[in-house]
Amino acid sequence: MAKLYFRYGAMNSGKSTAMLQAAYNYEERGQQVLLAKPSIDTRGDRGIVSRLGVTRDVDFVVAPEDDVYSTFERERARVRQSTGLDVSCLLVDEAQFLTESQVDDLLRIAIIEAVPVLAYGIRTDFQTVAFPGSRRLLEIAHSLEELKTICRCGRKAVFNARKIDGEFVFDGDQVAIDGAEVTYESLCGACYLDESGGVLNSGRNRVLATPAEVAYGSGPDADFA
Ligand SMILES: [Zn+2]
User: Fold this and answer.
1) Of the given ranges (42-51, 104-113, 181-190), which has the lowest mean pLDDT?
2) Catalytic option among 28, 75, 94, 213
3) Could you tell me the pLDDT band of residue 225, with boundaries at 50, 70 and 90?
4) Ligand 1 center to residue 9 CA distance, Å?
């Protein structure tokens, strides 16, 4: 049975690079793949931009109202017609921006169409809240795999703190408006709480204690080998 995989990580954890590598691995064996991404990601239009400088265009872009299942079927038919080969894998970049029903379609594609689906994305937004697509993927994916990156302190980064003009900001829309000087820094939980003054989820959850030492102590992060 084919499976739906969710490979998630903080920003700068090399998700796009890993996805392009996975596509390459299939193609090296003479297999066909389809690449897709949501249209809300405007960084490269149709392009998948890896931090290592590798870029590649997706086969189709998914708009918020799009039916991913039927779009996949159409693209699959196109590949069959042009190459005589079936699609061996669907790879989805920036999957956090899919809608929940589009993620449901990914599971249907894996199970009903027997095509593995590899979805790559960020788990949570700058306020530590799951993106809708990521939440659904965490709920229904057969396999979850974390792609790791390092915080400035050397621990594993799990959160994505937003900066505007170089200053940390903890309020605002989930998806920042293009054009503003918005950047992100991947932080561990301790550094995030240090910067936010102990606030998670924009203060909607009660602050139990202030930062670092409570959760982590001063020992090494055993989860990041
Ligand atoms: Zn840190």
Assistant:
1) 42-51
2) 94
3) very low
4) 15
- State in Å: Cα 97 to ligand 1 middle: 26
Are 105 and 99 contacting, i.e. CB atoms less than 8 angstroms apart? no
- For residue 43, what pLDDT band results from cuts at 50, 70 and 90? low
C-alpha 144 – ligand 1 centre gap (Å): 23
Q: Tell me, in angstroms, the distance from the centre of ligand 1 to residue 147's CA.
A: 17
Query: What does the pLDDT read at residue 220?
Result: 55
Q: Judge if pTM exceeds 0.70.
A: yes
Active site residue 94: yes
Pick the range with the lowest mean pLDDT from 4-13, 144-153, 168-177, 190-199: 168-177
